[in-house]
Write a structure and sequence with these properties.
single chain, 531 residues, alpha/beta, Alpha-Beta Plaits, Rossmann fold, Immunoglobulin-like, seven-stranded parallel beta sheet, five-stranded antiparallel beta sheet, 15 helices
Length: 531
């Protein structure tokens, strides 16, 4: 009798044991993939980074941890026990009944389910996936209030292509930045670790301490602010240095000197783009004032400093000023500065926007963006509308940062010219809005089209394994460099007429930039899609 009950007990145990199934639940995406790859120390030890670098191993999305929020939701699902997780597979090993596991497919972040019992996979449960889903998930923004000012220059189109400023560094030289370190509108920026700064006026690293002006906070928001479904800046994933050089309590030429110090610091830190929503013309002491003829591109101290910064390779974007017909203010007159006028939401010139003149050696202003009724986030975390070229400038600067991310091999001068050429009145510029309102997506498309018509040819594209390069007749050798979409060099090789094939099977799926430079110095750049 005892044996019979024991046997029945064993049968029940076996039935219960086999009723519990094991399965791998594959997830749709990860959090902040681009930011993590751009800052690998946040996900890997330095030793791991060094080993990968020494052996040419690419840091990719597989190195990014599984989204812990997803794991928490799986743990709370009915009848489910989470046993293990894998960042390489972006998957979680779960245990539960077949029914409970199948029910997980209803979760929006579950891509597919693979049972350990293969017989249960005859009708595999999955949802259609896009192999580039991780990359694209980073750029699905609901712009809310900022839609008009972002769409006007087609920066949103760059975002869709995952050019959101990742890997680029921007210096914002301005007045005060109060509450940037605590505001919800900059939480995304702080979480990514993309924020540093210095106060040159008070000589302190606490750039948030000064409350004499909130100007810099609002300026930064147009580029880096993010409020879910309500507000998206034009370069939300760039890294930022905040430099306070403006003393809002006075107007003195020392502020020009502070600005030059800040530009020098930016250069030493490897900054790509500088935005300045400041300008100088009149001072508290009238003896220091500039004249209209001084706005000649090389007289004001800050203007001369800006031209040097341009020579150092940085791209400078500056507000034209709010002086209307009275003219531009320094350093917007500098040849090396892209000076930004203001228009309203309909693209019509805003009367307060400073006008150019024959005093400038080059066309000023250069281009325009929305500066009338611009949407900004104030230090109280409230989305408001403000006027001024102070906001048309950073809106444009953020968009240009994304464009340069897409074209990492271009110089600052080349990017500036591409922006001008894409503008609405490039052939008929004026002193009000310069070459007009740029179309940054058009600038990117035209440049990529040029490379596709070049004398080098690459195929197949999209690529699976072996890339073939066709040479022009007058070229025997070429240097091939491959960059990822963040601008990081992945590999470099020498290609010859006798060996025109390279195995790229090891590259993860994604979008890459290929630069080919022939022995006769002809250079071509291509966008490559790796399947």
């Amino acid at each position: 009798m005892t044996k019979k009950y024991l046997f029945i007990g064993l049968l029940f145990f076996q039935f219960f044991a086999f009723a519990q199934q094991d399965a791998w639940v594959y997830l749709t995406d990860k959090v902040n993939v681009a930011n993590a790859i751009a800052n690998p120390i946040t996900i890997l030890t330095q030793k791991a980074i060094d080993r990968k670098t020494n052996h040419g191993v690419v840091i990719d999305s597989r190195d990014v941890p599984v989204n812990e929020a997803y794991i928490t939701q799986l743990k709370s699902a009915t009848g489910i026990t989470v046993m293990a997780k894998s960042k390489w597979f972006n998957a979680v090993h779960v245990r539960g009944s077949q029914t409970d596991i199948n029910n997980l497919i209803a979760l929006s972040f579950v891509s597919s389910i693979d049972f350990a019992d293969k017989s249960l996979n005859t009708a595999r449960i999955s949802r259609p996936t896009n192999k580039f889903e991780i990359e694209e998930s980073q750029t699905i923004f609901v712009y809310g209030n900022t839609l008009n000012q972002v769409e006007m220059i087609n920066a949103d189109k760059l975002h869709v292509s995952n050019f959101t400023g990742t890997g680029m560094t921007v210096a914002v030289i301005d007045a005060g930045f109060p509450n940037v370190n605590t505001m919800a509108g900059f939480q995304r920026l702080r979480d990514a670790g993309n924020l540093n700064g210095y106060d040159f006026v008070d000589r302190t690293s606490n750039v948030y301490a000064s409350v004499s002006s909130t100007h810099g906070t609002k300026v930064l928001s147009t580029m880096a602010g993010f409020v879910l479904n309500q507000f998206v800046g034009t370069a939300p994933d760039a890294s930022y240095y905040l430099f306070r050089t403006e003393d809002a309590t006075s107007e003195n030429p020392v502020e020009e000197s502070y600005w030059v110090e800040a530009a020098e610091r930016a250069d030493s830190l490897g900054v790509d783009v500088i935005n300045t929503s400041l300008g100088y013309f009149d001072f508290d002491n009238p003896s220091y004032n500039y004249t209209a003829t001084d706005m000649n591109g090389n007289t004001a101290f800050i203007t001369k400093g800006a031209n040097i910064a341009f020579q150092k390779g940085m791209l400078l974007v500056n507000s034209a000023g709010n002086s209307g017909a009275s003219g531009l203010i320094a350093p917007a007159d500098a040849t090396g500065v892209l000076s930004i006028a203001a228009v309203d939401g309909n693209g019509v010139y805003a009367p307060f926007s400073s006008q150019g003149s024959v005093n400038q050696p080059t066309q000023k202003p250069d281009v325009a963006a929305r500066g009338s009724g611009s949407f900004v986030i104030d230090p109280s975390d409230v989305i408001v509308q403000n006027n001024g070229t102070s906001f048309s400038s950073p809106i444009m600067a953020g968009g240009i940062t994304c464009l340069w991310q897409a074209l990492p091999n271009k110089t600052n001068a080349e990017i500036m010219q591409l922006v001008r050429e894409s503008a609405s009145q490039f052939t008929t510029p004026d002193f009000f809005i310069g070459y007009g309102i740029p179309d940054l997506q058009l600038a990117l498309t035209l440049e990529l089209d040029k490379t596709q018509q070049s004398i080098f040819k690459i195929f197949p594209n999209p690529l699976q394994n072996i890339l073939q390069i066709d040479f022009p007749e007058n070229t025997e050798n070429a240097s091939l460099i491959i960059y990822d979409i963040l601008g990081k060099q992945i590999t470099k090789a020498i290609i010859t007429q006798d060996n025109k094939r390279i195995n790229l099977e090891y590259l993860p799926s994604g979008i890459y930039i290929i630069k080919l430079q022939g022995d006769n110095q002809n250079v071509n750049t291509f966008k490559l899609i790796k399947e």
